[in-house]
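Task card 7
Instruction: Convert sequence to structure tokens.
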Amino acid sequence: MHPTGRARRWHYRPRIQRAAIRWGWTAAAAGESYLGITSPALAQGTLQTATGSAVVWSGYKTSEAALGFAHRRRVVRPLAKALSRPLESDPVNIMRDLAVPVRTDRASAVVTVPVPDGWHGDRKAVESVVGARLGGDWEADWRMHQAPFTVQFTRSPEPPGMVKWADIQGAIADNSPGEVIVGLNSRSKPVRGDFVREEPMWGLSIGSGGGKSVFLWSVAAQLIAQGAEIVGIDPKYVSLDPLVGVPGVTIHNDPRNVEAMWQAIREFREELEDRFDQWTQDRSLEFVRKVLILEEGNMFSDISKDYWREVKKKGDPASPPVWGDIAAILRMGRQANMNVIAVFQRMDDAATGGRGLRDSFGFRMLGRFTWQAWRMLVGTNPIPRSQKRRGRFIVVDGGAHTWVQAPYATEEEIRSFCLTAREAQGWSVTPDVTSRGAGESDQERSDAVSVTCDADAPRLVLVKDEPAEVPAPRFSLAAAAREGIVPMTADALRQAKRRAGFPAPGEDGKWAPEELQDWFQNRPSAKTAVVEKEASGE
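Output:
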């Protein structure tokens, strides 16, 4: 027995095993002594071999113990503390029988959680804690028929290797307003993101070649099907190509024209402020959803810094002002039905303008990530192993971590889906008369049909359509101030809007230029100025 009176691990070994170890060491010592007398050289070699083996074994056990200590400190102990509340037990008692493998990302990983005798608590709460702490999807097997009571967690199967756009059409029809399908989980069930309730702003950290462009297409297409408007910032020229020309979608994709990108974001913020002005007057207003997509956020950040260094003047802030607009949208957009989807290869603080904006993204997805990215954006242990499959993302929504396979769609499928949706919503959709089949050359097209002209047949005369009547432009208050419709600032116009006599906006929330100009000329302060001017004889 140990001097403290407690039994040591040695005493728990079977008696025959302890006897074998004692007799083995005795026999080894006797054999070494015999060799020392009969063959000293062989005895010395045997001793050196045994010593080297002992050193290697000791090093292995030491490294294993160090790894186990770190694993217990970072994973097992925090998990035991987290489980103590739903299991209604002391963390020390839970940790004694809690078995968590070092490599929880392996398919063969098994986690065993002890369940106290007489416990009848919430099983879902226990499963939620394990899933949040260890990451990924786990299957729970509750073994409550006989003591010791335990629950064993095993890894769920991986999501499907390929999800086609056609496979989710039925599920898309079941989306509620503001919901979009981001992929299928390990059970081939749709996993949805929600812009309405808990996740109005999305942040994606996806490595190069991870499938982020196709993912953005599918999300944008589902939003368009719900009537949303899209503003896209694409410094990579072609990432949002299928959306170009779709009614209600504006794409800025020239990295050489940074000012145009900034202006689009500034106008997005100004519309946000205009919506709040209208909402304060009428709380029953419901606005059309409008989403800002920021693709290749790291590149956008770099070109914004370069451009700002070229144009900024003495006394201007060091950070590009566009990040102030983005910060306002992230923090205020939810109430006005205006959302942001930002995609980065590395979503660090520098890439988001140095304003601490990462915490504004409540819904996050990671793909082809590094352990540094996981620590930076999620921060839980253990860190799941990144999967290289294109379109394989892990969704981080609050405390839940779910692996999904995002849908794959071609450019033609996305564009056709968007145009069909817009046409059904009453938008004017002009077909692309210049398009042709993929891989079909001009010569093949000319060979496909032969036309014989008959001189006596009536000739087909092509008549150019009359140009469509272009509606008169209408302006928000911010745009009216910016364009000089009236010589007032946007803030002054918003204050004037709250007073009597200001013209009411149209259904689109905007004003015709003549409406604002007539009001400006006839406002009370303007009439007073005219009277004073006439009285002075000027």
